[in-house]
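Tutorial, part two.
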Amino acid sequence: MSDAPRQLRMYLPDVLCESARQGDHNFLNLISQVVQQAGYSVSYLVRDTADMMQAAREPGYSLFHMEEPFAQNSVSIRRAYFYPFWHIETTGKRWEFEVAKTPFHEGAEPHPDTNRFFRFWQQRLFQDAPSRAHSKDFILMPLQGRLLDKRSFQTCSPTRMIADTLEQVDGKSVVATLHPNEVYSDAEIAALEKLTSLYPNLTIQTGGSEDLLRTCDYVVTQNSSVAFSGFFFEKPCILFGKSDFHHIAINVAKTGVDRAFETVLVHKPDYAAYLYWFLQDMCINAGRPEAPEAIRAALIRAGWPMDNE
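Running the prediction step on this input gives:
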């Protein structure tokens, strides 16, 4: 256990930092309360590269938001796709999160609140769209960034994923969506245009994923959060990359491309049980009274002393 001074510095984007300073961010408020009860002082700092590098040399403890927690005695927080669910982790890589490393035992006795939880969050997040879900005989492919690169967590580049999918689906329509917050290079756009000229069943568009989730057959992606949202629509997915929500997905790295596209046609996991386990059991629900204890447990798991000395 670390003997560093109990001083916590939170390095946050400017808007989030101001919200924390004003006491307007519930999850950061809860973290502050939990660590202060264990004798920590807390300071909120605007994320800055120089400041973050300094954190590596400072005694004490650091918290980052959606950053690799590179400093000694540091953690990173990340929203678990939807508010008020959060992760506190010692890595910034989603596929190395605690939930990613923990087995999901499908078929186990479900929690009594599983179905209520599932229906409540379907309505809360997507109104009546999941109840109107059906199939219009196409595949949804949410794209992310760096379309030409094969990164360490991917089985192939996104453009290779598109081509592999089109070769598998025998003329079925594929709708690939560009991420609205990504800026794509001329080379990436040219590669997409080449694919659409080779495959007339490929359509490229920006956004619109939620309505497409309602009507697609299934989702193919590297590890886009759209596929996780698709579980609320009871739509299966094929992952070409590592993810924290791999448990009920079909993983190309495990099955190979051919087998993945065979399996997805008959894949019917227990979406309600999985979403309850992932969000309620494995994440921190900042809206629940047990959130402080879950925060404390996550920090203990990270090696932080949380006794009251």
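The radius of gyration is 21 Å. In part three we will examine how such features are distributed along the chain.
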